[in-house]
Amino acid sequence: MLLPFLHKDTIEAGCDEAGRGCLAGAVFAAAVILPADFRNEMLNDSKKLTEKQRYELRNIVESNALAWAVGIVTPEEIDKINILNASFLAMHRAVDQLELRPQHLLVDGNRFNPYPGVPHTTIVKGDGKYLSIAAASILAKTYRDDYMNRLAEEFPMYDWKKNKGYPTKKHREAIKKYGTTPYHRVSFNLLGDGQLSFDFD
């Protein structure tokens, strides 16, 4: 069972990102403030859930959260500031939009650029430990998937509907054959020379 909070009686926002390891598309992050008494047995790290479960949980999170928001950093920005900084910036942009000001941030991972005026705690594999981070992982993942599905209609040859921009064999072969799109992160090793590819087939 995931934990409801790190600090009792504190307005805590869970933060997580999606799309860090992708070759194409923006990186998305979400920030979620849940009520202290919120419980859900199904809520977990988004990677451990089916697509159907993620979208079901998105509705549950959005209707129960005290506040939630999604931040986006474009491929052009990623190429300028690098993917690690882009992930932090996406989380900052999500926190910027929260209608309730958090008193503390719970951030998935082991590093973070401090958000002005709000203390934070980084938690490795936090999306499998805390409800608010798991909720943020669900929103970041599903909103990014929606975005990649829209891009897939514009550029069907890269198989983004299936791979969501991750470095699959099919994606890399399409880059070799058709070149890049305005959505590719040109600072990344797009052809994967000497790198392993994921495969979702």
Q: What's the SSE blueprint?
A:
Blueprint: E1 12-18, E2 27-33, H1 51-64, E3 67-73, H2 75-81, H3 83-96, E4 104-108, E5 120-123, H4 131-154, H5 160-163, H6 169-178
Parallel strand pairs: 1-4, 4-5
Antiparallel strand pairs: 1-2, 2-3
Proportion in helices: 25-40%
- The largest beta-sheet arranges its strands as 3-2-1-4-5
Mean pLDDT across all amino acids: 94
CATH-derived architecture of the domain at 12-151: 2-Layer Sandwich
What percentage of the residues does DSSP assign to strands (E)? 5-15%
| CATH class membership of the domain at 12-151 | Alpha Beta
Name of the CATH superfamily of the domain at 12-151 = Ribonuclease H-like superfamily/Ribonuclease H
CATH topology of the domain at 12-151: Nucleotidyltransferase, domain 5
Number of distinct helices:
6
Described by the principal axes of the CA atoms, the overall outline is globular
H/E order of the elements?
A: EEHEHHEEHHH
Distance between the termini: 31 Å
Q: SS-based structural class? A: alpha/beta
Number of strands: 5
Instruction: Outline the biggest β-sheet.
Output: 5 strands, mixed
Residue windows where pLDDT falls under 50 for at least 5 positions: 194-201
Query: Radius of gyration in whole Å, from Cα?
Result: 17 Å
